[in-house]
Amino acid sequence: MQIKLPTLATKPFGQTGMDITRVGFGAWAIGGPDWLNGWGPQDDDESIAAIRHAVSRGINWIDTAAIYGLGHSEEIVGRALADIPKAERPYVFTKCGQVWDPNDRQSKIRVGKAASIKAECEASLRRLNVETIDLLQMHWPAEDGTLLEEYWGALLELRTEGKARFVGLSNHNADQLAQAEAMGHVDTFQPGLSAINRRAAEKELPWCAAHGTGVICYSPMQSGLLTGRMTAERVAAMSASDWRSRHTDFTTDLAANLKLVEAMAPVAERHNTSIASVAIAWVLAWNAVTAAIVGARDPEQVDGWLDAANLELTPDDLDAIGAAILSARVGSGPAYPA
Q1: Rounded distance between C-alpha atoms, residue 301 and residue 53, angstroms
Q2: Which residues, in sequence order, are bridge partners of residue 217?
Q3: In sequence order, what DSSP letters do the residues of 202-256 get, joined into one string?
Q4: What's the pLDDT tens digit per position in 38-74?
Q5: 139: DSSP letter
Q6: Which residue in 128, 120, 133, 121 sits closest to 164, CA to CA?
Q7: Can you say whether residue 40 is alpha, beta or left, with left for phi > 0 and alpha for psi between -120 and 50 degrees?
Q8: How far is the CA of 309 from the CAs of 7, 203, 207, 276, 278, in angstroms?
């Protein structure tokens, strides 16, 4: 007898007309190890299996970026979707504005020149093997001296041309969002948000709620810290090619962060779910948040957090987690979803 899987909850994605599942597949880690922000060695076949498994379980969008693995993540996403009938394919979101030297895989620079943005879009279309990108986002503010008006103008042109159905900004502040909105609607915003990293909840989330801008948050599990599986021993054994081995979240701040994980365990037990799902559901509890981007490198990891798509934390749950955030003194920003 075939088991019927639960339908995953969806939410309108700002004013785009897309209804997206509350969790989406994040393709950062599957980019591979040989670049500046790699996650260590990856198995491409397992990555493809993870994407297809996520889609089979009802996930209807994938988030990637050109810089992830220097194009490799987009290629893997393209391969994973190639055999899925077009009518059943998930939405594909990617990001631009970071380029690299092909002779130096540890290089990258945040570029905003209009010509570069348009060339990057064409390259992403080829790697993903799609005719239109469902959502193209500027990954970070440019650091090459290009003004926001130039790169946002280029994205708006790509939207008009149909190369991208919708366009958005990632890792920008509220003032920059307002500056872009004055030129043309910011369809979406992508900040980092977790119970550890809460800065975007202060100004950017309220701005998005007020302007009809959809929000998809990355790193809701703080790059694996809030999964319940991270330990000091596991961090010590990380490959040198894994960027996390050098980050303060996993070094000087590790003990405090793991105290927060301990506080999430009783919440997970009450809901008969994983700590990872609780961490993601905390992000989804913010009214302005449409959905969360969650990474996976094999099908088992997908199943480890999929419950979050339909999990609603109670006020008591949120109070307990908020108290733990304040007690452990982790991160910065509001401790209670509003």
Answers
A1: 10
A2: 292
A3: TTHHHHHHHHT-EEEEB-TTTTTGGGS---HHHHHT--TTBGGGGSGGGTTTHHH
A4: 878 899 999 999 999 999 999 999 999 999 999 999 9
A5: -
A6: 133
A7: left
A8: 9, 25, 24, 12, 10
Residue 47 is encoded by which pair of tokens?
Answer: 């990555």
State the average pLDDT over residues 226-253. Answer: 80
**Which entry of 68, 91, 151, 218 is annotated as an active-site residue?**
68
Phi, psi of 198 (to 5 degrees): -115, 10
The CATH number that domain 11-328 falls under is: 3.20.20.100
Distance CA 142, CA 109 (A): 8
Return d(Cα 282, Cα 289) in angstroms, integer.
11
- How far is it, in rounded angstroms, from Cα 23 to Cα 28? 15
Name the one residue in this structure whose structure tokens are 């504005």.
97
Closest CA to 267 of 195, 191, 215, 193: 195
Task: Please give the structure tokens belonging to residue 112.
Answer: 């905003």
pLDDT over 80 at 243, yes or no: no
**Residue 75 structure tokens:** 């290629």
User: What is the reported pLDDT for 190?
Assistant: 98
* Residue 248 CB-density burial (10 A; 0-12 exposed, 13-18 middle, 19+ buried): exposed
Examine the residue annotation and report whether 68 is marked as an active-site residue of this protein: yes
pLDDT digits (tens, 9 = 90+) for 159-206: 999 999 999 999 999 999 999 999 999 999 999 999 999 999 999 999
